[in-house]
Amino acid sequence: MTQVKKFWPILTGTHRYEKTLSTRGRGQGEIIQAPILAYLIETQNGRILFDVGCDYQKIQQPKLRQTYYEHEGFPFGPPDMTEEQQLPNKLARLGLKTEDVDVVFCSHLHFDHAGGLCEFCHAEVHVHQQEMQAALLPADEAYFKSDFDLPLNWKVQTGEYDLVPGVSAIETPGHTAGHMSMLIELPKGKPILLAGDAADLVENITDEIAPGLCWQENETLAIQSIQKLKRLELEHQANLWPNHDWTFFQNHNPFPKPYE
């Protein structure tokens, strides 16, 4: 039986960029707005946070913004993130502090998923071993070493596992070396299958289009992970959620209304 009690999608910022960053080889010249999301899962055995968004200071402080975002590697510039969108402030709206989060689960360690780790040095931080290895190289410019080179309580994983009954980590490499998705069994209604960046948009899922950025240019691996998620969606009769689709996000419960 699932231990999940409630589930919240949390908007931590937005980023405007060319669609080709989400759909490989498709969308040249088309600028899209993408939500940057975290997901809070309240269980009978504590609280789990799936991803933590960006580091607010790297966006707001001019010198840091220039160092991390204002160069050729980021032709579309930094994301937009307001003070209200910082995770500590979002949690406060639920009557929580960052210390009330027991586990942070990183789908991967790109800047828009691991930047907020500095707020959660007390928590267990789960990441796949292959992801950590790739991030430390770094495998691409979306890894900011300072985001995760911190005194954190790392729990480095090597496969698929249950965090608690009803919350399962799913291996979905391709976008990055050790990318992970998550299956969440709600107490009511269908399970939710969080694709993470294995699928940015609904289009990635329906058309089986790889993300624009693929680890070692391995488009086939990325598509295999999308196909795996679609199989799990059918097997568990789940709702498969893409991670950076603005229209999809807008059609779901507005924060702070939870799923139960």
Automatic annotation (TrEMBL):
Signal peptide: none annotated. It comes from the Bacteria. Residues 35-244 form the Metallo-beta-lactamase domain. Its cofactor is Zn(2+). InterPro entries: MBL_superfamily_lactonases, Metallo-B-lactamas, RibonucZ/Hydroxyglut_hydro. One of its GO terms (molecular function) is hydrolase activity. CDD domains: AHL_lactonase_MBL-fold. The keyword Membrane does not apply. Keywords: Hydrolase, Metal-binding, Zinc. This is N-acyl homoserine lactonase. Belongs to the metallo-beta-lactamase superfamily.
